[in-house]
């Protein structure tokens, strides 16, 4: 038996760990899979945030064998309401409602708490023989037939491919000279978990307010996760407020329809931006997740897009290796890039358009968008098409997103 070169993944968060597991399951023990990330030293993760995981990505997690680990703490989104009003309006009239099943008994999305999902991925990867290294990638030198990856602990790994899953500020992307196209929004997303007196009944709410969307996303128990968009300066001011003043700002937007409310953790503001890398690949390098693209959270699709990269790259690599082809070869990486880059640009365009249309106080624009929402609401086939699109069940789907093992 010949010893195969490793595949090294830089970054052990959602994208990196899901890819490692998919590769391990598709390739078996013959190809060593290494994930390097200093954050792996801080397990279990204490990330208080939650993420909407759409149906296609839930199928991926199910196929990878991690969904069972998080299912008990995941909250299905059973329906969704969309409103459009001014901050000071006494009521928030509903313009659009969605009931949330893509197939009978299969909700279009679940809210999953980040800490549970990261731990489930890391434990499963470890149990299946992925090598987790709690250290940073510091260098990558391409040489004939491979890439020598250097780690901060002083070791080196001879790899056929290095994958950058190192997030929005990817050093590997920068080092490879890959430029990005995009901009910063004058908006931040305030994230906080809120406890409430009454049950949310699995309902997600998207309130379009003049500063941007205010999303109430249901968690298990009488809790919801908020993604609350404000202008950057306002967001910085709001998260710095004393508890009582913060509560007043929160209540003005949240309302009292779920009874008394209370912030359960410290609000944090994330400056929002958008970019797509000009290339998703370089010599012996592939970018996945936020290293390749960051989009506005208006539709809760950022990680879902990253998981599509994971599913497409894993499938491309596994197909190549089974044919005896070196997975770091340019035509293998080109196949991955062709598969993912256009879809990413299309999602980026859609989320930018939504943000321009809805984070806006123009009375004219407001009438136009409200007529549009009302029309969609009266057309069940169109609504259905939107739900399937949002659930990631359209286009050329990689096998893992269809729930098929590699
Ligand atoms: C307010 C807000 C709300 C959101 N809500 C949603 C949602 O509901 N649904 C959704 O799909 N998406 C959502 N997103 C987007 C989602 O959070 C991101 O897309 C996702 O976290 C990206 O995961 P990732 O694994 O690609 O990168 P990251 O989570 O950024 O992880 C990168 C990892 O790389 C490691 N790393 C960095 N440099 C190195 C190095 N040199 N060596 C080794 N490791 C390194 C880091 O330690 C880190 O662990 C939201 C984003 C925001 C800002």
TrEMBL record:
<keyword id="KW-0285">Flavoprotein</keyword>
<comment type="similarity">
    <text>Belongs to the UbiH/COQ6 family.</text>
</comment>
<feature type="domain" description="FAD-binding">
    <location>
        <begin position="7"/>
        <end position="341"/>
    </location>
</feature>
<dbReference type="GO" id="GO:0006744">
    <property type="term" value="P:ubiquinone biosynthetic process"/>
</dbReference>
<dbReference type="InterPro" id="IPR002938">
    <property type="entry name" value="FAD-bd"/>
</dbReference>
<dbReference type="GO" id="GO:0004497">
    <property type="term" value="F:monooxygenase activity"/>
</dbReference>
<dbReference type="InterPro" id="IPR051205">
    <property type="entry name" value="UbiH/COQ6_monooxygenase"/>
</dbReference>
<dbReference type="InterPro" id="IPR010971">
    <property type="entry name" value="UbiH/COQ6"/>
</dbReference>
<keyword id="KW-0560">Oxidoreductase</keyword>
<dbReference type="Pfam" id="PF01494">
    <property type="entry name" value="FAD_binding_3"/>
</dbReference>
<dbReference type="GO" id="GO:0071949">
    <property type="term" value="F:FAD binding"/>
</dbReference>
<dbReference type="InterPro" id="IPR018168">
    <property type="entry name" value="Ubi_Hdrlase_CS"/>
</dbReference>
<protein>
    <submittedName>
        <fullName>2-octaprenyl-6-methoxyphenyl hydroxylase</fullName>
    </submittedName>
</protein>
<dbReference type="InterPro" id="IPR036188">
    <property type="entry name" value="FAD/NAD-bd_sf"/>
</dbReference>
<dbReference type="GO" id="GO:0016705">
    <property type="term" value="F:oxidoreductase activity, acting on paired donors, with incorporation or reduction of molecular oxygen"/>
</dbReference>
<dbReference type="GO" id="GO:0110142">
    <property type="term" value="C:ubiquinone biosynthesis complex"/>
</dbReference>
<comment type="pathway">
    <text>Cofactor biosynthesis; ubiquinone biosynthesis.</text>
</comment>
<keyword id="KW-0274">FAD</keyword>
<keyword id="KW-0503">Monooxygenase</keyword>
């Amino acid at each position: 038996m010949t010893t195969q070169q490793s595949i090294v993944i830089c970054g052990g968060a959602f994208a990196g760990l899901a890819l490692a597991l998919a590769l391990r399951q598709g390739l078996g023990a013959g190809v060593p899979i290494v994930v390097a990330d200093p954050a792996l030293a801080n397990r279990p993760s204490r990330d208080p945030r939650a993420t909407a995981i759409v149906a296609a990505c839930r199928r991926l997690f199910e196929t990878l064998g991690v969904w069972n680990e998080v299912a008990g703490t995941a909250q299905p989104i059973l329906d969704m309401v969309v409103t459009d009003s001014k901050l000071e309006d006494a009521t928030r009239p509903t313009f659009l409602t969605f009931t949330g099943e893509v197939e009978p008994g299969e909700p279009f999305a679940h809210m999953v708490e980040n800490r549970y999902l990261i731990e489930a991925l890391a434990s499963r990867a470890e149990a299946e023989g992925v090598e987790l290294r709690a250290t940073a990638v510091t260098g990558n030198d391409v040489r004939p037939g491979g890439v020598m990856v250097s780690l901060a602990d002083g070791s080196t790994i001879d790899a056929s491919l290095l994958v950058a899953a190192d997030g929005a500020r990817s050093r590997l992307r920068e080092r490879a000279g890959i430029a990005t196209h995009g901009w910063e929004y004058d908006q931040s997303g305030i994230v906080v978990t809120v406890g409430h007196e009454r049950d949310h009944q699995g309902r997600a709410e998207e309130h379009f307010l003049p500063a941007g969307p205010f999303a109430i996303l249901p968690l298990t128990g009488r809790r919801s996760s908020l993604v609350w968009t404000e202008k950057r300066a306002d967001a910085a001011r709001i998260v710095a407020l004393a508890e009582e003043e913060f509560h007043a700002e929160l209540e003005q937007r949240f309302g009292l329809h779920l009874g008394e409310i209370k912030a359960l953790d410290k609000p944090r503001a994330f400056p929002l931006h958008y970019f797509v890398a000009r290339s998703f690949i370089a010599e012996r390098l592939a970018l996945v997740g936020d290293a390749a693209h960051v989009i506005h959270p208006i539709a809760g699709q950022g990680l879902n897009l990253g998981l599509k990269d994971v599913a497409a790259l894993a499938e491309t690599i596994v197909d190549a290796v089974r044919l005896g082809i070196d997975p770091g070869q340019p035509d293998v990486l080109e196949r991955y890039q062709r598969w993912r880059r256009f879809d990413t640009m299309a999602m980026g365009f859609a989320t930018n358009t939504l943000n321009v249309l809805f984070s806006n106080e123009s009375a004219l624009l407001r009438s136009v968008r409200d007529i549009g929402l009302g029309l969609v609401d009266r057309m069940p086939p169109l609504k259905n098409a939107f739900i399937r699109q949002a659930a990631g069940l359209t286009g050329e789907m990689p096998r893992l997103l269809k729930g098929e093992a590699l």
